[in-house]
Protein: ABC transporter substrate-binding protein
Amino acid sequence: MIPTRRTARRSSVHRLGALGATGLVGVLVLSGCTPGEAGPDATAAPDWELTAQTAEPSGDIDSFTWVSYSEPYSLDYAYAFDYADNQVLSNVCESLLRLNPDYTLSPGLAESFEHPTPDTWVYTIRDGVTFHDGTLLTAADVVTSMGRHLDPEVGSSWYSVYQNVAGIEQTGERQVTVTMTRPDSQFNLAMGGSAGVVESAATLAEKGADYGNSTGLVNCTGPFALTAWTSGESVTLTRYDDYWDESLRARSGEVEILFMTDPNARVNALKSGEVDGGWMIPPDAIAQLRGSGRGEVYFGLNTAVGSLIVSDLEGPLGDERVREALLMAMDRQGILDAAAQGYGEVTNALTTESVWVGASEAALDEAFDGLAEYPYDLEGAKKLIDDAGAAGEEIVIATAPLGNDFAVISQGAAAAAQAIGLKATIQTVSPSAYTALFSDPTARDGVDLFYTSWYLSSPDPLEMYGVLRTGEFSNYGGWSDPDFDALVEEAVAIDDPAQRSEVTAQAQRIANAQLPWLPLFEGPMTVFLGERVTGVAPSVAFLYYPWAATIGSR
Structure:
């Protein structure tokens, strides 16, 4: 998620063995540098611009095909926490609110909401909506769907959204009231994502443990029904003709989403016309796809920041000076050029400006201007390592064969570590084992760093900093700072987005200073559309907005 920053801030155009000196040279060559050259700005930025909306379709289409880099882990909304899951689910299931491509919120399955007291949110459920089996959506379905996030037996990935919820109850024929233990501005903002999805209570009861897998499927209210899931191959979505929102009636009768884990296979399928489109184009394939004559690559709003997560603060990286030294030793512009072909910009923040919706000008100034920049400085980094007494200590960097960016970033981090006197080992794991790093603490045993492109699911930067509070599930390294926690707790209780942003900005500055995660770069969301199709909004909101419904015939 980059709307580039305002001109005043712009500096340029949501996861092997030890490397020696030759590894550093290899990364520099990839980025267009040589060891004797200054790291930053050695490669010209590519030519690209943001597109809010592609051309309107000329008409409907019988079907189209799409490609995904991975099979969904689950289509149970309680576990839909990654790109592969949500890009399917967003077309099939719906939330109480709708997160739009410009990252604003509008009514969804709740036609309206009220905030009558600081501790209550009241949702009026839309009348006349049907699930894909033809049954009517009721307030009871909403209560059941929301309540699953509080059930420890479910173990929802979205529990943190509900952590301040005291109760969820039906308070009218079409009314649901959520009572909080304390004021929580973030709860309602999260109702545009997976945390706000509504499923048929009857289906949840009927399917049990099979709900959301390739056997049980799902039964929701979106513009498409999930009609088939062939494990290891594809899912099929079929237009739901009784969909309630005529403005988002599906333009295609059917969509087949194919799973291709090999990036070369995905690119070849797009170039050959075997598939009509795909999200998240491998950066090293953008140029060839743009020149293929078989379609267009579009760049859109993103909320993701590419960062290295510090997952072990008991080891060398527990010293703030070592974290700072490692970031200073990484030629982040060179890594951006090599990993993402220069599509993006180096950042010192863990959020993009696109999520600071409603922020005050003063907050934006504090949040982004004047942050420590951690320039490429090997000598300064070596001194920090010496001051910390960390020379010769070892760090382990986990990676997986998920794309060129993972290889470049892990090699760049290892080379930087060794250049300043640390030992570094790259540990390559399978894609599924890499995914487990985000959900299973035991998978992170012995791992000091791993890469993520971490996106935000709501239009507020506080979502990111809520993750880094002491004890949070996704605070993978167990970082803790009482001043930071106090600021986040204060901001959570503030409803006004401008006022809240000014407190959040202070939290961003603490994270920038202490580096619990090491920010690398931000870049645009990418999508390829083949010659047959058009109509999509190229935005990271495809994870929650029914993007496939808007695609029709070119």
